[in-house]
Amino acid sequence: MRLLVLSFTEKGSHLNRQLCLQMSQMGYFCEGYAPSKYAKCADLKTLDKDISEWIGENWGNAAFLFIGAAGIAVRMIAPWVKDKFTDSPVLVMDEKGTYIIPLLSGHVGGAVQIAHDIAEVTGAIPVITTATDVQKKFAVDVFAVKNHLLISDREKAKQISASVLRGEKIEFECDFPIEGDVPEELSLSSGEKMETEDRKDKRAANFRIAVRQFYDSCDEKNENTLFLYPKNVIIGIGCRKGVPAEQLKEGMDKILQDLRLKREQVEAVVSIDLKKEEAGILEMTDEWKIPFYTFSAEELKTVKSVSTSSEFVSRITGVDNVCERAVKYYCPDGELILPKTSLEQMTFAVVCRKMKLSY
Q1: Burial class of residue 16 (count of CB atoms within 10 Å of its CB; 0-12, 13-18, 19+)
Q2: For the domain 233-352, what is the CATH code?
Q3: For the domain with range 140-230, which CATH number is right: 3.40.50.1970, 3.40.50.1370, 3.30.70.940, 3.40.1390.40?
Q4: What is the pLDDT along the chain (359 residues), one digit of tens a residue?
Q5: Domains of the chain: which residue ranges?
Q6: Does domain 2-129 have CATH number 3.40.50.11220?
């Protein structure tokens, strides 16, 4: 997590420096900033541009902690606030380090968790205002973030949170192993419809949460079900030199559609290092914001077996099967759901990383 810390007084700047050191030890990448007259004495960075403009440049890609008055933070972030699914986590701390308050993106962005981490290393008191946290209720957005799941319908997620706060039960079903005690707000389901008799209970489920590896277009029309999908799909790719990005995108979309997977579920695209500068792949993965990793022929040869071999590909690349070897090398314990499959001038293989969730 990248955490940008801003302070505006001498005392706050010394706290800024101390907090950056402590949070770095917890695995955060911290950068501390202060006005020039305080930055030097506290060994912090100085911002050479308008602070609000600088916040906009980093919005959505970092968390912000303001050491000072909450009003300062609100005015500076105001132009950039959109919604909790894209906003940066924003927190405020007083210059004595007594309280730490998540202001924005508490669940999805992780501001509540950051507040608890800061409290752990500084002794500050976290001031949490989100309703599900205050009432210690199950929050579907927290569950999704914790388990790297995609939320299919943001509005439905809000409706489910409101339903939980009203004391209503939520049906829950999951395609994956799941650890921990079942929250009392959830009613485990096999996916079957609830009996009419159950509906008489005012606490009976009106909404359902379904954690699925694969989507079904018919299921997703269900107005009362929120689907959560794992970001655990790795795609191996091979192609002739110079295949344009549009052709690669069409091919990958076809593969995903045939497998009933969403593009947003793709964790990474992988290939041989001969393709690390392949313009079409780079353009596609950059546009879709998917990491692209490549491996040497020697690394790919360590994969024990593949479904098919090609002498032609072996002469060109040094390995008999690029896409399948690449995806198995990247995720050796995953499930190969699509062995090497050829389309025009390109090949694909798909692995799903095995998932174990927790409440």
Answers
A1: buried
A2: 3.30.420.180
A3: 3.40.1390.40
A4: 799 999 999 999 999 999 999 999 888 999 999 999 899 888 899 977 789 999 999 999 999 999 999 999 999 999 999 887 789 999 999 999 999 999 998 887 889 889 999 999 999 999 988 877 777 889 898 899 889 999 988 889 889 988 998 889 999 999 999 999 899 999 887 544 444 344 444 455 589 999 999 998 777 677 889 999 999 999 999 999 999 999 999 999 999 999 999 999 999 999 999 999 999 999 999 999 999 999 999 999 999 888 988 888 788 888 889 999 999 999 999 999 999 999 999 999 999 999 999 98
A5: 2-129, 140-230, 233-352
A6: yes
Prediction pTM value: 0.72
307 token code pair: 């479904």
Residue identified by tokens 């409440």 is 359
3-state SS of 226-267? EEEEECCEEEEEEECCCCCHHHHHHHHHHHHHHHCCCHHHEE
